[in-house]
Predict the 3D structure of the following.
Amino acid sequence: MTALSALIHRDIRIALRVGGGALIGVLFFLTVVVLMPFAVGPDLALLSRLGPAILWLGALLASLLTLDRLFMADHDDGSLDLITMSRTPLELACAAKALAHWLAAGLPLIVATPVLGLLLNLDMVATGAVALTLLAGTPALTFTGMIGAALAVTLHRGGLLMAVLVLPLSIPVLIFGVAASQAAITGPLSFGAPFSILCALSLVSLVIGPFAAAASLKHGLD
Amino acid sequence: MTLIDLANPTRFLALSARLLPWLAAATVILLAIGLYQSAYAPDDYQQGATVKIMFIHVPNAWLSMFVWGVMSMASLGTLVWRHPLADVAAKAAAPIGAAFTFLALLTGSLWGRPMWGTYWEWDARLTSVLILFLMYLGLMALWRAVEDPSRAARAAAVLTLVGAINLPIIKFSVDWWNTLHQPASVMRMGGSALDKSFLIPLLVMAVAFTLLFVTLHLAAMRNEILRRRVRSLQMMQASRVAFSSDVGSRQDGASKEVGAA
C-alpha cells in the first residue's frame, strides 16, 4: 500500500513540476474550445447548443494527448523496469500510475470547465452537468487510454498510432457523457440513466485497463 | 492430429497444401449454387430486385464479426499458449476481416440508396460496423508499424482482446445514441421470419462465404509463414556478410599491427 501511495505521490510531483507537462493539457483544452467558434461561427445560441459536445471533444483530445507521457518518461529513465520487477503486482502499479495521471492531468480539465462554459454561453446548470459528467467519465478515458500508452511504450511508437487505436474505444464514453449532459440541459430523457451507465463504463475500464496495460507491458518489454 | 501438432510450420504447410484445393473447390461450387439460387429467388414485394443485395451483404456482415472472433481466439493462443502459428493466424485474418467489413458497408450503402434514398444513414448498425472497420484498420496499422513480428504479435493480441470486450459495449452504446438522436426512422428487415425462398439461398451463401474465408485465411497464413522464412533467410545472409567483412577488417588491422611491430 505504501509502495502504491509513494508511486502516486511521485507521479503527481513529476507531472506538476518543470518538464511534467500535465498542465499543457489544460492549455490544449482551452485552445481547442477557443478554436471552435472560428469554425462554426460566433453565434451564441448555436454555441450553447453545441457546448457540451465541444467541451467533451476537447477534454477527450486533451486527455489523449497527455497520455503519451504515462509510461514513456519512466521507460526512458529506466524506472519502468524497476516498477515491473518490483514485488507490487504490475496491474496495481499500472492502476496507481493511471490514478496519479488522472489526478494531475484529468482533474485540471474539470476545474477549467466552468471557465470554458462561460466562453460557450452555457448557463450554470449546463456547466455543472458537463463538469459532473466529465468527473464521472474522464477516469474511463484515462484507464482505457492507458492500454494504448502501454502498447506505445512497448512498440516505441507513440503519437498517431496510439490515437488511432484508442479513439474508437472511447466512443461509448463520449456518447454517454454528451447524452447525460444534454439530458440535464434540455431533457426529455432523465439524467440518471446515461449518467449511471457512464459511471459503469468508468468502473469497467478501471478493471480492464490495468490488466490489459500490465499484460502488454509484461509481454512487450524484454 | 491436435492443435499442438501444427506448431511445426512445415507440418502446417504440408497439411494446408493438401487441404487448400479441396477447400477452394468446395467454395467455388457452393458460391456458384448460392449465386444461382439468389439470382432466381423471387423479388420482394416491397424491395423489388434490390433484396438480392442482401444475399451478398448478410454473409459479409456475419463474417466481419466472425473474423474478429477468430482473431480473438488466435490472440488467446498467442498470449496464453504461445502457439507459434497463432500470431500468423491473427495477422493473416486482419486484412481479410477488414475486406469483408468494407464489403458489408459498401453493399449496405448500395442497398440503402434505392431503399432509404441515401447512401449513408447514421443508423445504429451501420455506425457500429463502421467503427468495427476502423478498429480493423487500426489493428493493421499496428501490425505494419513494428518490424519485429513477435513483438507486434503480442501488442496486437492485447488490442484484439480489448476490442473483443469493447465491441459489444460500443454496439450497445451506439444503439442508445441512435434511439436518442433519431427515433425509428429506419425500416427494419424481417421482424417476421424470412420466407423459405430467401432463407435457403442466404444460408448457402453464408456457408459459401465462410468457406471462402477459411480458404483465403489458410492461403494468407501460408504466405505469411513463407514471408517470415524469406525475412529470416535475408537477415541470416545480411549478418553473414557483416560478420565476414568484420572479421576481414580485423585481420587487416592485425596484419598492419604486425607490420608496424
